[in-house]
């Protein structure tokens, strides 16, 4: 699946969470699961050798938020799921990190210092 479609689907889930529809939980959870699976499937392609492009790092940092979003949605916790979804979208670049790195901007500046100190991020993403 194309990155732009995945990001668009994630935006759709976040928009659904901003609303009040209580009938679509299972469909939205399934959609988020597909997004997470597809991102995880492409992550090894983004990370090569010891040099990690900033866009790949951003995607790696978004993954734990997406997993927390999924957990919150499974418990029908709309507020928490929305919070994690918005944070994940802050990390995910608008353009595809799956193409060859071109020296893009990388992480959102407001979260960079805090998140780069987070230990264990890559081990949690690779599970």
Shape descriptor reads globular
The assembly state of the depicted protein chains is single chain
Spatial extent as radius of gyration? 14 Å
Instruction: Tell me the major beta sheet.
Output: none
User: How many domains, in number, for the residues?
Assistant: 1
DSSP summary, beta strand count: 0
Unreliable stretches: 98-127
Total of helices: 6
Strand content: under 5%
Helix content: 55-70%
Structural class by sheet pairing and helices: mainly alpha
Strand and helix order: HHHHHH
Please summarize what this structure is.
The protein has 127 residues and is mainly alpha-helical. The protein contains 6 helices and no strands. The two termini are 21 Å apart.
Please describe what this structure looks like.
The chain has 127 residues and is mostly helical. It has one domain (3-125). Helix content is 68%, strand content 0%. The chain has six helices and no strands. The protein has helices at residues 3-18, 25-46, 54-74, 78-91, 109-116, 121-125. The two termini are 21 Å apart. 24% of the residues are buried.
Based on the model shown, name its key terms.
127 residues; 0% strand; disordered C terminus
Question: What's the arrangement of secondary structure elements?
Answer:
Blueprint (H helix, E strand, L loop, with lengths): L2 H16 L6 H22 L7 H21 L3 H14 L17 H8 L4 H5 L2
Helix pairs in contact: 1-2, 1-4, 2-3, 3-4
